Predict the 3D structure of the following.
Amino acid sequence: MRVIILGSGSYSGTPKPLCNCENCVRARKYPQYKRTRFSVFIPEIKALIDPSPDLHYHLEHLNMEVKKVFITHAHFDHIAGLPELQIFKEIKFYSHEYAVNVAKHLQELFLGERDWRYISLEFNRWYDFGFKVYHFPTVHQPIEVAGGFVIEIGKKRIAVTGDTGPEILSDKNAIEVMKGVDLLIAEMTHKQSIPKTHLGVEDAITLAQKVEAKKTVFAHISHSNYTQEKLEELVREHGYIIARDFMYVEI
Ligand SMILES: [Zn+2]
Ligand SMILES: [Zn+2]
Ligand SMILES: [Zn+2]
């Protein structure tokens, strides 16, 4: 099965306008260092995880139909591209009630009536929709409701942490449900963790070691993090992967 990391960046993307840090300068010069906002596509079930503000650009390159949309949380970098989905007739949205309501509101505000379906997921239980999904909460202030997903398709399991503070390291339930998945897509926003907000490099690696996924990809990387090469060097001994935009991951 193939999973596509459409966007590997965090809220401001790389390059961030007016920023002259090493990552931003390089990304302006060389497109392979550009990071659009975080988003993932699973072709097998035509599922998009997080409609990023760069969704038009993602869809333009992907050129595939979207039928399901999972939303980790309602921060703009994870949901603001939603109106770009207007080209698709039938979509089912899956998230916690809070994000589902924001999604519905964006649809009504920008697109009016639609034949789309919204499925509110309670945290910490499995659902079976032909594929299985489990939504677990994360600590990610200032938003009150944020979470990650474990999605099971046939015999393959994919975990996405969504945005999370380092508190996830002591969340036994989240670690247990992600344990041994075929693919872990974890956030690694900054060099250092910010309590209750985002993971830094060291804590993201510790999380991956606890989860013991068959394959681990780090994404949602800020322009202010280390360079791609430095990050690759830091995870190399563990065999982990640092995402780039439009990276194909085979599981
Ligand atoms: Zn984010
Ligand atoms: Zn920068
Ligand atoms: Zn966020």
